[in-house]
Design goal:
Oligomer: single chain
Shape: elongated
Structural class: alpha+beta
Distance between the termini: 82 Å
Helix content: 40-55%
Order of helices and strands: EHHEEHHHEEHHH
Protein name: Mlr2029 protein
Strand order of the largest sheet: 1-3-2
Number of helices: 8
Length: 208
Amino acid sequence: MAKDKPSDIELLRTWTLTPAATLGSAVRAKGILLELRARLPMSSRKSLVLESGEIVLAMPSSAKTEFQAAVGIVSSAMKDIESLPVIPREIQDILVIKQGERHRWLADGRLPSAGTRTVRLAGRAKQITFHVFDPRVVEELLNNGTVDEWREDDIAAAAENRRRAAYKAKLTRSLKKRAKKSAASGKSDDLSPSLDDWAQFDSEGLLR
């Protein structure tokens, strides 16, 4: 086997991804790689890879100028990489939550948005817009066990909603039954509350 010529020796540079950057997520690490690649010229993107928690840039020595330019771009981006907004698939992996939970908690304000981002899908003309999240907020949610508390709150709220729905259904059946009896006897039941009355009681919290 022929020995490599000097011109075939690779130029190599690595950057370590810290836990503060990845938040312990392989999905987040891959997202950071894609973000860094997007900042490079198209010809340099495949030279940047993720290996064992490190961002690795490798090029042949014949591409010294291109290599130096790529090093400058990646090094500059890595300075603020821990502040890179967290995208939906990343936060779901970091917090181990489902898409439905992310949508629900975002809608009710428990999960604060750090803004929106619009991207064009690869090979398509269509653009999509989605919410992104502050990595430090996500880290706090992860460390404080807040997600477990939210799930417990959701379970309690769902149980209360079912109880109230069952009680309202029971009241409705009772009122209809009394109305039929009154109609059959030819008497009016002025003392029986109307459905509007019950709705007012419910709005005032009397049925809770």
